[in-house]
Amino acid sequence: MIATIVVTHHTLAESLIATAEFIVGPNPNLVGVGISQNEDVEAIRKRLLEMIKKFHKEGRNVLILTDMFGGTPSNIGFALYEPGKVEIVSGVNLPILLKLAGGCRESDKGLKEIAAEITEYGRKNIFTAAEFLDL
What residues contact 32, with CB distance under 8 A and at least 6 apart? Predict the structure, then answer.
């Protein structure tokens, strides 16, 4: 089993999780961390590291989802990467959270494979009106 930490700027993580849980119900394996403008980067890193340690003690690997590549949440997340134990996916969206809630995280796949699967799923769920409506 894996635990998922959504790390974003401001309150996006909490809003995404609340919306996903509105659709599919509560998920105790999903936590959010919003980063405010005035927070110390080292303090955030330490807080995430403590969360990761707690999940590892419970026998769970950790998937960190961040809002955008190159931003503070991603930069902190990438510094915590541990092959097979902590994986990072940058560019979280609602379809990714719903895919995880639908059992993807419970499969017999490894952390790296789950990360690849949800990344592809997130990409496949981005459309323009022209792609969908034009014949």
Answer: 5, 6, 7, 8, 13, 14, 16, 17
